[in-house]
Structure formats: structure tokens, C-alpha cells
Write a structure and sequence with these properties.
The complex is a heterodimer of chains A (about 140) and B (about 450). Chain A is α+β, with helices and mostly antiparallel strands and about 140 residues long. Chain A has one domain. Chain A is built from 4 helices and 7 strands, in the order ββββααββαβα. Chain A is elongated and about 45 Å long. With about 450 residues, chain B is α+β, with helices and mostly antiparallel strands. In chain B, the strands form 3 sheets. Chain B has a 10-stranded mixed beta sheet with strand order 11-12-8-7-1-2-3-6-4-18, sandwiched between helices. In chain B, strands 5, 14, 15, 16 and 17 form a 5-stranded antiparallel beta sheet that branches. A 3-stranded antiparallel beta sheet of chain B has the order 9-10-13, covered by helices on one side. The longest helix of chain B is centred in the first third of the chain and has 15 residues. Chain B starts with 5 loop residues before the first strand and ends with a strand. The chains are: A alpha+beta (about 140), B alpha+beta (about 450).
Chain lengths: ~140, ~450
């Protein structure tokens, strides 16, 4: 990595949690997980790397059905809809978390590659807040 | 901000929400001097079937069990300030809930009030059980249903407000419709003004889970911090006549409202974001824009709407059998191996044909699978774990046996197990169906 001459190519692997947040919702045996970029600059990385196939692979041990991915560029977000993954849903599941409420953080554990210069400003970093403010001014 | 706005706040986002949440919402609404309403969303799919069972046991019951502690602190203030109250806290027995509210008002010395009861969602009472359809239109057959309710829209509640109702008590209405009704009534939006109805439905969708849009269910220390999460303020929407709205929260409370909190809630329980179906509209959120509008305020615009679905969604509750659970802790050297052995012992002692799952909390539990594949592949260095077993069965005795087998690990299981807890409970399952809209005839009754 240190040999890279172009800083833009200098990427590091991090959990998706470093650049995105999200929440799950359930209806019956269907789960939806939102994946929302902390910063607009992160959204293209998420769109490219958080594919329906990779999400389905994260749930392979649950024998998931189809995964449908919706893009919401104005919210810098993806909405992932995963079928037959709750092993019966909240009313029939044996899982402690029959709603699947914790599963947003399973998705957020997916490894993604992020250019190093885009990793500096995530979360509660004061610099990030300042930048967000600038970006949010219409 | 133009004149003509109405404020709608949320006082509860589910049955079991914080009972002190409505107070600051009502104080904020009262201080605003604007037309206002507060909604209470307390009805889940299972809650309604449980309420039907309650009602079958006692005809005076079957409404939200926490109705009184939720409403009592705010009822008088709402009546004095003209803040309308809407709730699906009627559950399986809206009329009984309305009577309780009238009694509460008399007991508290409140002014006389009009309470509207919305009926018609109960398909068993309306003899419509045989008209419930599966997605493909074929009849949906559920043996021995406990409850069957259609999701009614905002129309009847808006009519109740027009009749001067101070409190509107509903059973199964769609959650966002509780907020849409006061918007419809106040702004006089036409029933087929799909764009405005979409905006009102989106506002209701953001409000319906209470603090989930104001910093509740959001905190992730060091990443997404929430101020004063022990006293999060519940949300309030200011709705303009043209459908643009601002979402904020009760004054002098913790929590936060920003693009991130609103983004998480906007997609909560959404599937196709271009077609979120409610009884009132087909909502399209793909072009929604969120713009910060001062501290703890976000401006929401751009919701689009298409005509409402021709069929109403129906939830049918039925007997879901029994769940038996048992847990025991192991800690210190070789704890994980002892927990795995305990799991194996209990599994071998249960009937071979019952549905059983084992977890080791601390190694893999909620991310895991019923088959134990994920658990088998993990060996983290942890010193304090908890074995858990769960059994689903139609027979109560089998569920009790599973719990008993975990208890027996105290003497017969691996070394050093402690802290056994067991639980056996009956479950209610639900199935989703549809019913042609024209068959469902919601009605309003006014009690005074």
C-alpha cells in the first residue's frame, strides 16, 4: 500500500459500519435492511460493493430466498429486501430475535474497500460535521 | 412558515412504549397555539389477536392494557387546548376503550367530551371471513382463526373529527392513517388528491413508531451519539396545506432529529420504495428530499402518490402452538465447550420430531440459524456464555419438557452451570390476506 503513488488508489478494507448506518424492518418472513451512507461521497462505494449477491451470501446459513435491492440516491441509501430469512418470522421463529432487528449489524459487518482519504471523516468527527453542514446547505 | 399549518405529534409507537412520552408532546402542542392532534399507535399484528382472546374472556376488555396510564397524564390538557386524540388503542374492543376514556374524563373532572368509535375492521364480526383472499385472489383458508381484521384507512377518522370528536378510538386502522386523518380534516384535502395524501401518509409513517425518528433505536456510541437518550422527545410534524412538512420533536427533551434519523425511519418496514401500500394511497418515496431546517428539524418534501389499492390488507391471527425455552450460564475455563455439551445433552433428551434450536449467547445467537451452522463454525475466546434452547411444538407438555430438561442440568449437566431461567408460553401466529375494499364498511359511533 505504501508504494502507491496515487493516493486515490490507496484503499483499505473496513466493515461497512465505518461508512454506513442502517435499520431493519420485518413483515412476516421478509426482512428489509436500509444501508445509508454517512456521507454522500460514500454512497457510490456502497452502491458498487453492497450487491444483492453479497448480501445474500451473508445470510447463506439462513437459506435465504431472493434478495431485491432498491437504490435511493437522494437519500444516499440502499433498501435491501430479503425473503424467507427469518425462519418463520416473529410469531413462529425459534430465534431470540424473531423480528431480525439485530440483522442490520450483520449487514454492516460486510467488508468494503474504501479510499483512505474518505475514511477520515466518519461518525462524530468534528471535521465530518462541518463538512456535512456544508454539503447540506442548499 | 405560512399560516394554516397543523401540528400532529406521536404519543406512543407501540404497545409497551414509554408512558411519560406523551406529556412533553402535549405541552409543546399546547404552547404552539396552532391546531393540533396527538396520535397513539399501540397495535401490532399479534397484539390484536391477544386482544381478541382478552375480549372473549371478558367482554369489557380487549383494548390496549396501558390505555389509562398512557392517556391519564394528558387527557385534561388535550381537552383544554383542543388537541384531538387519535389512537388504535381500541384494539379488539374500541367501544369499551371509549367508555373507559369517558369514565376517566369524569373521574379527572375534565370538560364533557365527544369520543368517536371507529368500527368495521373486525371481519369476523362483519361475517366476512369467507371473503378473505390470498395475494393471488384465491380464498385464504385459516383453520380456527382467533381474529381477522382489515386495515382501515383515514377516511372514517377524518369524518369523526368533522363531527367534533375530541378523541377517536379505532381498532385496526393503518398506522400512518392515524396522522393522515387530522391532516385530511384540517386541510380539507380531496380523497383522491394522491400527492397530498402521499405527503400526509409519509408524515404518518415517520411518526408512527414514536421516537424511532427522534433518536430512539439509533444510538451507536462514538458513531451516532444521541443526547440524553434516557429522555428522548417524541416526534411532532408541522404539515402545510400543500403537503410539505417539517418533522421535529417535543421541546425540552433529549434525542435528536436529523437527516440520519429521518433516513433510517423513512425506509423502516418499506419494501418497494416506489410503492408503499396503505389503505389511503400508493406512496412513492423515491424522490423525497430531506433538508435540515434548524436544530432538530428536518424539512421533508417530494413524496409522490398514486391511487390507493383496490384491496385492503387483512391480518388473521390463529393458534401458533407453544414455545418452550431454557437458559443456563457457563463461565471461566472451557466455558464454551461446557455450554456446547449442555446443548447436546438437552437435544438428545428431547423428542426427535420436535422443532428445536440451540444458541450459545456470547458465541452466536441472534445472527445464527436454527440448524446451528453458524454456531458450529465459531470459536471466539470468551469466558462467559449462556446456553439457550428453544422448542416450538403444538403440545404444551413438550414445551414444558424442554424447560424442565434445562433445569435438570443443575445436577445432571456439565460442571459449573448456573442461572437457569425457563419460560413456556402459548403463541399466536398471523397470516396476511386481502379483502376487496367495497366489502368493508367502516362506521363511526359517537359516545358522550
Amino acid at each position: 500500500m505504501t508504494d502507491m503513488t496515487n493516493a486515490m488508489d490507496d484503499t483499505v478494507e473496513v466493515p461497512l459500519h465505518r461508512i454506513a448506518h442502517g435499520r431493519t424492518g420485518d413483515k412476516g418472513d421478509r426482512l428489509n435492511v436500509s444501508v445509508i451512507a454517512h456521507r454522500p461521497a460514500h454512497f457510490p462505494l456502497i452502491r458498487d460493493q453492497v450487491t444483492a449477491e453479497r448480501v445474500r451470501a451473508l445470510f447463506a446459513h439462513r437459506g435465504p430466498g431472493p434478495v431485491v435491492r432498491y437504490e435511493l440516491p437522494r437519500l444516499h441509501a440502499l433498501n435491501l429486501v430479503i425473503d424467507d430469512v427469518l425462519e418463520g418470522g416473529v410469531n413462529l421463529a425459534l430465534n431470540l430475535d424473531g423480528h431480525g432487528k439485530t440483522l442490520s449489524f450483520l449487514v454492516l459487518s460486510m467488508p468494503v474497500r474504501v479510499p483512505r482519504h474518505l475514511l477520515e471523516t466518519v461518525g462524530n468527527d468534528p471535521q465530518a460535521k462541518q463538512q456535512d453542514k456544508q454539503e447540506e446547505t442548499p | 412558515m405560512g399560516d394554516g399549518r397543523i401540528l400532529v405529534g406521536c404519543g406512543a409507537g407501540f404497545s409497551g412504549d414509554r408512558l411519560d412520552a406523551p406529556g412533553p408532546v402535549v405541552e409543546t402542542l399546547a404552547r404552539s397555539g396552532l391546531p393540533a392532534a396527538i396520535m397513539f399507535e399501540t397495535l401490532g399484528e399479534r397484539t390484536l389477536a391477544l386482544a381478541q382472546l382478552d375480549r372473549a374472556r371478558d367482554p369489557e376488555r380487549g383494548y390496549e392494557p396501558l390505555l389509562e396510564p398512557l392517556l391519564e397524564p394528558v387527557l385534561d390538557s388535550c381537552l383544554r387546548h383542543g388537541i384531538r386524540i387519535l389512537g388504535n388503542f381500541g384494539a379488539a374492543n374500541p367501544r369499551a376503550a371509549a367508555q373507559r376514556i369517558l369514565e376517566m374524563g369524569r373521574r379527572l373532572g375534565c370538560r364533557p367530551m365527544r369520543v368517536a368509535v371507529v368500527t368495521g375492521d373486525d371481519l369476523a364480526a362483519a361475517s366476512l371471513l369467507d371473503r378473505i383472499e390470498a395475494e393471488d385472489g384465491t380464498p385464504l383458508t385459516v383453520t380456527a382463526p382467533i381474529s381477522a381484521n382489515a386495515y382501515v384507512g383515514a377516511g372514517p377518522m377524518a369524518r369523526a373529527l368533522a363531527l367534533g370528536a375530541d378523541v377517536v378510538v379505532a381498532g385496526r386502522v393503518a398506522d400512518p392513517s392515524l396522522a393522515l386523518a387530522p391532516f385530511l380534516h384540517h386541510h380539507g384535502w380531496a380523497e383522491d388528491d394522491w400527492r397530498r395524501i402521499a405527503c400526509g401518509t409519509l408524515a404518518g409513517h415517520l411518526l408512527e413508531c414514536g421516537s424511532q425518528v427522534t433518536g430512539g433505536y439509533f444510538a451507536d456510541p462514538g458513531v451516532k451519539d444521541v443526547p440524553d437518550p434516557h429522555r428522548i422527545g417524541f416526534p411532532i410534524v408541522a404539515m402545510d396545506a400543500d403537503g410539505g412538512f417539517t418533522i421535529g420533536k417535543a421541546e425540552d427533551t433529549g434525542g435528536l432529529v436529523d437527516r440520519r434519523t429521518v433516513s433510517e425511519q423513512i425506509l423502516y418496514e418499506v419494501h418497494d420504495p416506489a410503492a408503499y401500500l396503505t389503505p389511503d394511497v400508493t406512496l412513492d418515496i423515491t424522490c423525497v428530499e430531506l433538508v435540515p431546517d434548524g436544530p432538530d428539524r428536518v424539512r421533508v418534501t417530494g413524496a409522490a402518490g398514486r391511487p390507493r389499492p383496490e384491496r385492503l390488507k387483512v391480518t388473521v391471527g390463529y393458534d401458533g402452538g407453544w414455545l418452550g425455552e431454557g437458559e443456563i450460564s457457563y463461565a471461566g475455563p472451557n466455558a464454551v465447550a461446557r455450554a456446547r455439551l449442555a446443548l447436546d445433552v438437552v437435544k438428545r433428551r428431547l423428542p426427535a420430531d420436535c422443532r428445536v434450536r440451540g444458541d450459545i449467547v456470547g458465541v452466536s445467537s441472534v445472527f445464527g440459524d436454527d440448524g446451528g451452522q453458524r454456531l458450529a463454525g465459531r470459536a471466539p475466546a470468551v469466558e462467559d456464555v449462556r446456553m439457550r434452547i428453544a422448542v416450538a411444538t403444538p403440545e404444551r407438555a413438550v414445551a414444558e419438557r424442554a424447560a424442565q430438561e434445562v433445569l435438570a442440568l443443575y445436577t445432571c449437566g456439565p460442571a459449573g452451570g448456573g442461572g437457569v431461567r425457563t419460560a413456556v408460553r402459548q403463541r399466536i401466529a398471523t397470516a396476511s390476506g386481502y379483502i376487496p375494499r367495497a366489502l368493508v364498511r367502516p362506521d363511526i359511533e359517537i359516545l358522550e
